[in-house]
Amino acid sequence: MNLSRLRALLDEHGLRLSRELGQNFLIDAGLADELARKAGASAGDLIFEVGTGLGVLTRALAARADRVRTVEIDSGLVRVLRSESLLPDNVELIHADALEIDWRAWVDEATQPVRVIANLPYSVATPLLRRLLDLRDGLEDWSVMLQSEVAERLVADPGTKAYGSFTVLHRLVADVDTIAKVSPSHFFPRPKVQSSFVRIWPRATQDLGEGELVRVERLVRAAFSQRRKRVTNGLGRIAEKKWPELDKGARREKLEALLGAVGIDPGLRPERIEPAAWLALSREFDRDA
After folding, report:
1. Residues forming a β-bridge with 143
2. Contacts from 146-149 at CB under 8 Å and sequence distance 24+?
3. Which of 78, 111, 160, 244 has its C-alpha lying 20 to 30 A from 278's C-alpha?
């Protein structure tokens, strides 16, 4: 679908794209096919897509995979997709908010390999990426288009500006590869930012037990809420809840002892601490009943 055809469809159906929904449609069919190939879409796969748009990536996925289940929140776009018969027969179009779907049920009921491949709307990218981490046991991988700024957070090194709680969570359970940089010219409307297409897959050997990622997340989110201060500052509220019977000074001593037990200097900023050290700290908190 070229740009003139896309504009014509939107005009014919009286549609206006929404900034709130983060709608920036991929318009290059050749690029869509290349991304589908690089994402590993193949015969026998069930692909989950978020943000159907007018189906450019959806059709590329359907040409390679057995089935595609695609989610679109915009009722106007759903109407166009159906009335214009823009999707192949092996595509199931779901009109829904991706953040309200029971993704676990979708994964558990699948009888074939499942991949998520999507040009993620900006509005759902971060929360959906977090949910995909919890689905890692049922997914082959997930390949998504993101703002480059978000993609950089997934692969950042400790001590860098992009390194944060999101980096830690991904580093503990998954590997991330940036497989394409995509300029604004490939989208309509053109975004004001660069985009990156990343492929994420769960590690074959998982070091985390059940529920541990959530417990690590609680620590890192608290710590990075004050990322420019000592790690003890951000963790102060957690310490207060864990040891309410202690006064402030005693709680700080207790917290510093736990940090020292896993080799973390209490004077460090959160951005200087490696993912493995965060996991060790979480486990130390668990042992200190």
Report:
1. 117, 199
2. 146/120, 146/195, 146/196, 146/197, 146/198, 147/122, 147/191, 147/193, 147/194, 147/195, 147/196, 148/181, 148/193, 148/194, 148/195, 148/196, 149/193
3. 244
pLDDT at 289 over 70: no
Instruction: Assess contact for 117 and 47: CB atoms under 8 A.
Output: yes
CB distance 249 to 262 below 8 Å:
no
For residue 145, which of 61, 66, 51, 74 has the smallest C-alpha distance?
Answer: 51
Summarised one tens digit per residue, pLDDT across range 197-250 is 999 999 988 789 889 999 999 999 999 999 999 999 999 999 999 999 999 999
Report which secondary-structure segment, H or E, holds 287: helix 275-287
Sort strands 25-26 and 174-182 into parallel, antiparallel or unpaired.
unpaired
CB 184 within 8 A of CB 192: yes
What span, in angstroms and rounded, lies between the C-alpha atoms of 242 and 201? Answer: 34
Q: Is the pLDDT assigned to residue 92 strictly greater than 90?
A: yes
Question: CB 190: neighbour CB atoms within 10 A?
Answer: 12
pLDDT at 23: 81
Distance CA 57, CA 39 (A): 12
**What global pTM score does this model have?**
0.93
Percent of the chain whose predicted confidence (pLDDT) is above 70: 99
Domains and CATH numbers, the chain: 3-202 (3.40.50.150), 212-287 (1.10.8.100)
**Which two structure tokens, joined as six digits, stand for 28?**
């290059």
Q: Where are the alpha helices (DSSP H) in 18-164?
A: 29-38, 56-64, 75-83, 103-109, 125-134, 148-155
